[in-house]
Write a structure and sequence with these properties.
43% of the residues lie in helices and 15% in strands. It is of the alpha/beta class. The chain folds into 2 domains: 196 residues, Rossmann fold; 90 residues, Rossmann fold (3-Layer(aba) Sandwich). A 6-stranded mixed sheet has the order 1-2-10-7-8-9, sandwiched between helices. Strands 5-4-3-6 form a 4-stranded parallel sheet, sandwiched between helices. Helix 1 packs across helix 2, helix 3 runs parallel beside helix 4 and helix 6 packs across helix 7. The termini are far apart.
Length: 310
């Protein structure tokens, strides 16, 4: 189990390299909701997502060999690792499954200094190839969601949220491989209800709760590029099975609706993974109790600006 002290240490370690992203309050009625919510604008983070927190914590807490670093990613983790590696003077290779590769995310990975290697097959196949490359070359493997340094880095966003708000009861978190929700749940413990939100095509946590950890989800749908983990990592699985009680799975149509409402009300654009978390509320799948203090984490913004207008 991840200890909150590891998250505190990570926050200090990565502070010079990341942004302290803002939170905004959205009033009742603005999103078609009858209650106010707080929104964490993590999509304004360096590289456009929370992933840079875990990337920097890995590279700053582990020895990076001459062979550099390697990651497997649908986009955000790869961009974060490439950025952190370049900033710290290391080379990076990013393995990306062709099946979920998006041109905008590939462009950003390359712009941040990463060498992109497109792979055939599933997300799980890509993970195998990246691990094989690390074993063959000695490069430092930076796992997107299943190492303590990654989860501790991602958990710093929860620490930051708690420092920004005067009380919080519930937070909506989109889930892929579990690194983000695992770090958040490890920080909040029993103080805050952490709600998992997934799409039908990326339902790793929901399936894990029913079937156990040994699953293989073939990611599909609008959120596959950002939430397309084949399974929960072992460490996130341990945390979420103990700490996460509410799990919501939504159709893609609700994600589009949430993104449109967010744009209409605030002129903010999040990627599908970010809109997935908000969709738990705009769809009515989660209805807060009276006076329940609710937050939504907009986890990333790396998508074409008109993705939700079709």
């Amino acid at each position: 189990m991840l200890d909150p002290s590891q998250i505190t240490a990570a926050a200090t370690r990565i502070a010079p390299h990341i942004r302290h992203t803002p939170m905004i309050g959205i009033e009742p009625g603005a999103l078609g909701l009858e209650y106010p919510i707080q929104v964490k604008l993590e999509h304004t983070q360096v590289t456009g997502s929370f992933k840079v927190r875990g990337a920097f914590n890995n590279l700053l807490s582990r020895e990076v060999p001459e062979a550099g670093v390697v990651a497997a990613s649908g986009g955000n983790h790869g961009a974060a690792v490439a950025y952190a590696a370049t900033k710290l003077g290391h080379k990076s290779k990013i393995f990306v499954p062709k099946a979920i590769a998006k041109e905008e995310k590939l462009r950003r990975m390359r712009a941040f200094g990463g060498e992109v290697i497109l792979t055939d097959g599933s997300v799980a196949d890509c993970m195998t190839q990246y691990a094989d490359h690390a074993a063959e070359t000695g490069a430092l493997a930076v796992h997107p969601y299943d190492t303590a340094p990654t989860l501790a880095g991602q958990g710093t966003v929860a620490k930051e949220i708690e420092e920004q708000l005067d009380g919080l009861d519930t937070i909506m978190v989109a889930v892929g491989g579990g690194g983000l929700i695992g770090g958040i749940a490890a920080w909040f413990g029993e103080r805050v209800n952490v709600v998992s939100v997934e799409t039908e095509g990326t339902n790793t946590l929901a399936r894990s709760q029913k079937e156990g950890p040994n699953i293989d989800v073939s990611a599909s749908g609008i959120s596959a590029g950002s939430l397309g983990g084949p399974a929960l990592g072992a460490l996130p699985y341990e945390i979420v099975m103990e700490r996460v009680k509410d799990t919501i799975v939504l159709p893609d149509a609700e994600v589009y609706t949430a993104a449109r409402r967010l744009w209409e009300a605030t002129r903010l654009i999040g990627e599908p993974g970010a809109a997935t978390a908000l969709a738990a509320l705009t769809s009515g799948a989660y209805t807060p109790a009276p006076d329940e203090r609710v937050a939504v984490l907009l986890c990333g913004g790396n998508a074409e600006v008109d993705w939700f207008t079709g």
